């Protein structure tokens, strides 16, 4: 296993967009790092650069302390699993798992041992004699991961590997991935556009936008202390409310943005008056759309629990605990840190 280090990594496609702009990132040995961000922000490109499947426009990449910037993909000793994992349809699961080892000239006994270990780690021992067409989507997914595991690479690079699974299977596959990561102690870089998946999987999460990493931090830190309004709205559902505010510092008002998570709004007491616009039951809680009685009647979302939500049309008071209020600069969108 190995750490991964990116220094000023950039990629501009010929006649195309700037996909990745001067990214510095250090991924520790054994870390599970998730790259998350909206479609087109450069996640797959960054992963492919680490794998060696794209050439860099600028910067250096080191894996396990070795500069691999000029090293071809097959000699970087990383395993990449794509969203559209292609298994060999005419081969059994066993042969699919063994294929990579065979082409590298591994011995019969070593191959059998590695295949058995990977099958056990993934719980697919009973499937070894089946063909891919005889497997469910989740099982195929596991075989694709198994092929990466038997190679014992320095790092796993996974690009939306669970996106073909239905929601229930995804939750299960996610838990399995975490368990697997714990067992193997492997370095993993995992791409997803799903913030919930990012939060549940990552030991750290890097939020990308337009080829740049906006913030990289452990999941709860991203949630509790987003570095800017983009991260603030990208992480958490429903998205954080952002309201124009004036911050009075040393008697001088400064244009700011107040960020309020819907879960932090308290109803029943507080300085703000609002009218209930709409109530959406979600099962365990309600998303309540509120129209503030302030100028312009801005909308505010609140997530409320309890048995009886306020009815549409009623007027209520609400507040936000001061320590749950986020403040951002109005122009740059950067978090204003309070001392
Ligand atoms: N081979 C290519 N040639 C030209 N432009 C490309 C190429 N591959 C990607 N791009 C562009 O680079 C940018 C980043 O693409 P990338 O595939 O890395 O995004 P992504 O974050 O993985 O998005 P998604 O979530 O949709 O998979 C996009 O604007 C994309 O159109
Ligand atoms: Mg992608």
Low-confidence runs = none
What structural class do you assign from the helix and strand content? alpha+beta
Strand residue percentage: 25-35%
CATH class of the largest domain reads Alpha Beta
Average pLDDT confidence is 91
Distance between the termini: 40 Å
Q: Write out the CATH superfamily name of the largest domain.
A: P-loop containing nucleotide triphosphate hydrolases
Entry keywords:
Rossmann fold; 339 residues; OB fold (Dihydrolipoamide Acetyltransferase, E2P); binds adenosine-5'-triphosphate; globular; 2 domains; six-stranded mixed sheet; alpha+beta; 8 helices; binds magnesium ion
Q: How are the SSEs ordered, and which strands pair?
A:
Blueprint: E1 4-12, E2 18-27, E3 32-36, H1 43-51, E4 58-63, E5 66-67, E6 78-81, H2 93-103, H3 108-122, H4 137-150, E7 155-159, H5 167-184, E8 187-192, H6 195-201, E9 204-209, E10 212-217, H7 219-224, H8 229-234, E11 241-249, E12 252-260, E13 266-281, E14 286-292, E15 299-304, E16 315-319, E17 326-329
Parallel strand pairs: 3-8, 3-9, 6-7, 7-8
Antiparallel strand pairs: 1-2, 1-4, 4-5, 9-10, 11-12, 12-17, 13-14, 13-16, 14-15
Bound molecules: adenosine-5'-triphosphate (ATP) and magnesium ion.
Residues 43-44 line the site of magnesium ion.
């Amino acid at each position: 296993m190995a750490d991964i280090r990116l220094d000023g990594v950039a990629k501009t496609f010929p006649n195309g967009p700037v996909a990745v702009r001067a990214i510095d990132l250090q991924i520790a040995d054994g870390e599970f790092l998730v790259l998350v961000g909206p479609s087109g922000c450069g996640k797959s490109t960054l992963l492919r650069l680490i794998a060696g499947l794209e050439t860099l426009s600028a910067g250096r990449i080191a894996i396990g302390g070795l500069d691999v910037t000029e090293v071809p993909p097959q000699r970087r000793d990383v395993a990449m699993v794509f969203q559209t994992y292609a298994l060999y349809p005419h081969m059994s699961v066993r042969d699919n798992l063994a294929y990579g080892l065979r082409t590298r000239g591994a011995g019969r006994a070593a191959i059998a041992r590695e295949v058995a270990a990977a099958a056990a780690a993934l719980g697919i021992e009973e499937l070894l004699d089946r063909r891919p067409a005889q497997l469910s989507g989740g099982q195929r997914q596991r075989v694709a991961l198994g092929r990466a595991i038997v190679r014992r690479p320095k790092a796993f690079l996974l690009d939306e590997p669970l996106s073909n699974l239905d929601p229930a299977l995804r939750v299960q596959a996610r838990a399995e991935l975490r368990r697997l990561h714990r067992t193997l102690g492997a370095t993993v870089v995992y791409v997803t556009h799903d913030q919930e998946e990012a939060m549940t999987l990552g030991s750290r999460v890097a939020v990308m936008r337009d080829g740049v990493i906006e913030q990289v931090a452990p999941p709860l830190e991203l949630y509790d202390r987003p570095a800017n309004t983009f991260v603030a709205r990208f992480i958490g559902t429903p998205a954080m409310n952002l309201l124009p505010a004036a911050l009075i510092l040393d008697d001088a008002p400064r244009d700011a943005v107040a960020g309020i998570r819907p879960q932090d709004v308290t109803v029943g007491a507080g300085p703000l008056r609002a009218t209930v616009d709409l109530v959406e039951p979600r099962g365990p809680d309600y998303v309540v759309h509120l129209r503030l009685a302030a100028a312009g009647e801005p909308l505010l979302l609140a997530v409320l629990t309890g048995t009886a939500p306020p009815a549409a049309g009623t007027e209520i008071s609400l507040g936000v605990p001061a320590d749950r209020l986020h403040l951002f600069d109005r122009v740059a969108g950067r978090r204003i840190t309070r001392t």
